[in-house]
Amino acid sequence: MELIKRYKVVIAIVLPIVILVLIRSLGTNHFKTDAIKWAEPSVRRSNIISFDKAVSLPGNKLFVNLVGENGIFKTPGMKSINIPADSILNKKVLHSLKNNNGPVLLYSSENDVSARVWMILSQMGHTNIYIVSDDPENEVMKNKFRPDTLIRPEL
Fold this sequence. Notes:
By secondary structure, this protein is α/β, with parallel strands linked by helices. Helix content is about 40%, strand content about 15%.
């Protein structure tokens, strides 16, 4: 008891800090910090596959349709769920993604939405996640570059 009275100021400062560190480190919704490791599959394009290749992947495939205005998309012969992209961090959705024994296939009518969801899930530690795209070269500039004509060069 004498020890607590003597060091009560130190305990009052250190104890909340230790509690906050434990909460932060044991939390379920924090991201991994190694961005280069998580961005590498995107740079190598190993995370983008066609629907034909997705069907041939081994394991129980889970097709996640990131529905927007286009509504519901059904996939024959494959387990599929339709969820809005903005609710991908819902605990129930994350639980179903984590408990799937096989690849998780993300699809959206807009490839950038699928890429964003893929990056979020990858940074959270989920593996075996792919983006299904009909156009595997969706990042390539398809239009001729035209400089901005409103900007005048320095005189």
